[in-house]
Amino acid sequence: MSTTRFEGATAIVTGAASGIGRATALRLAADGAKVGCVDLADAVDETVELIRNAGGTAVAARVNVTDEQSVAAGVETVTAALGPATILANVAGVLRFGIFHESSVEDFDLQIAVNLKGPFLMSRAVIPHMLEAGKGAIANVASSAGMFGQAYMPGYAASKGGVVMLTRAIAWEYHKVGIRANAVSPGGVDTSMTGQVEFPKDIDFSLVKKTVAPNYQMMQPEEPAALIAYLCSGEAAAINGAVIPIDYGITA
Ligand SMILES: NC(=O)c1ccc[n+]([C@@H]2O[C@H](COP(=O)([O-])OP(=O)(O)OC[C@H]3O[C@@H](n4cnc5c(N)ncnc54)[C@H](O)[C@@H]3O)[C@@H](O)[C@H]2O)c1
After folding, report:
1. Whose CA is nearest to atom 8 of ligand 1?
2. Would the CB of 155 count as within 6 Å of ligand 1?
3. CA–CA separation, 72 and 74 (whole Å)
4. Ligand 1 atom nearest to CA at 23
């Protein structure tokens, strides 16, 4: 599906090299946005190529979302090429499994840095552009793991719970000046993140069952991407500070 709802707008999407981030970049471009595709990985160039081949406008920026200078340089690269950004989708993320008391400090720090500090740094860098434009929409990617207790992913769950509150903090602070912030909270999505899952040995699988959708359904990355596009559009003008599950009802 494609529309003209973002015609003339510049969007920045993190995690755009893969999975939900790539699907979001493609979807926003199909809906008329010029898209800054931000990621650490070289495959971000393929996303840009896919957008250009479909007649859209995109540039790539190699950014480590955990690093303040890298974020500033990446936002500058995108806005110099495409104009000030009024849409930001914070999608980049990492997942590490581990039994709580055996999990490493490095894994905990990494997940907080990418999943929570990343959206903080990116939003902090892009909001001044939105203030200048007098409008803006931010969509963060939380997770069902940030909505209820899940076993064997302590750093991930804590980071995604943080994303929920970061989203609400931005939404409330800027609601009078036309900048909205919302989050989508996916359950299982068929991406490289879930394809590479390695559960720790000897875990209690009955604790994992809660996270499994009926009939083991996994959604495609285009499904949360469509929700992100909707939340960033004018049709969602009254939605602010919302955290919307897209999870087959597992958090119902
Ligand atoms: N796949 C799922 O089931 C699922 C469920 C709920 C939430 N999510 C969330 O959705 C988002 C996207 O995940 P995905 O499933 O598409 O995974 P993915 O592994 O396919 O994509 C993640 C992308 O983030 C990028 N990235 C990682 N660290 C980065 C950094 N420091 N700086 C810049 N980019 C970085 C990676 O290079 C990759 O391109 C993540 O925030 C994830 O936590 C995924």
Report:
1. 143
2. no
3. 6
4. 16
Q: Which of 12, 13, 14, 18 to mutate to test the pocket of ligand 1 (most atoms within 8 A of CB)?
A: 18
Query: What superfamily does domain 10-246 belong to in CATH?
Result: NAD(P)-binding Rossmann-like Domain (3.40.50.720)
Q: Which of 20, 48, 159 to mutate to test the pocket of ligand 1 (most atoms within 8 A of CB)?
A: 20
Name the residue with the closest Cα to ligand 1, atom 43. Answer: 93
| Catalytic residue status for 156 | yes
- With a 6 A CB cut-off, is 65 part of the ligand 1 pocket? yes
Task: Specify the long-range contacts of residues 73-82, CB closer than 8 Å, at least 24 apart.
Answer: 74/36, 74/38, 75/12, 75/36, 75/122, 75/125, 75/126, 75/129, 77/36, 78/10, 78/12, 78/36, 78/38, 79/10, 79/36, 79/129, 81/36, 82/10, 82/34, 82/35, 82/36, 82/57
pLDDT at 1: 66
Does this model's pTM top 0.85? My answer is yes
Residue 158 Cβ contacting ligand 1 at under 6 Å = no
Please tell me if the CB atom of residue 91 comes closer than 6 angstroms to any atom of ligand 1: yes
* Cβ of 17 less than 6 Å from ligand 1: yes
Q: Could you state, in order of their start, the residue ranges of all structural domains in the chain?
A: 10-246
What is the rounded CA–CA span in Å between residue 46 and residue 54? 12
pLDDT tens readout for residues 178-231: 999 999 999 999 999 988 777 888 899 899 888 888 888 999 999 999 999 999
Residue pLDDT, tens place only, 28-76: 999 999 999 999 999 999 999 999 999 999 999 999 999 999 999 999 9
